[in-house]
Amino acid sequence: MTKELGVGIIGCGNISTTYFKLAPLFRGIRIAACADINPAAAEARGAEFDVTAQSIDALLANPEVDIVVNLTIPEAHFPVSKAILEAGKHVYSEKPLVLSLEQGEELRKIATGKGLTVGCAPDTFLGGAHQLARAYIDAGKIGQVTSGTCHVMSPGMEMWHPNPDFFFLPGGGPVLDLGPYYIANLINLIGPVKRVAALSSMASTTRTITSEPRNGEVIPVKTPTNIHALLEFRNGATITLSASWDVWAHRHANMELYGTEGSLFVPDPNFFGGTVEASGRNKDIQPLEMWEHPFAVNNWDHPLGPIANYRTAGLADMADAILKGRDARCSLERTLHGVDVMVSILKSGEEGSFVTLSTTCTQPAALGIEEARALLR
Ligand SMILES: NC(=O)c1ccc[n+]([C@@H]2O[C@H](COP(=O)([O-])OP(=O)(O)OC[C@H]3O[C@@H](n4cnc5c(N)ncnc54)[C@H](O)[C@@H]3O)[C@@H](O)[C@H]2O)c1
Question: Which top-rank group of organisms is this from (predicted)?
Answer without folding.
Answer: Bacteria
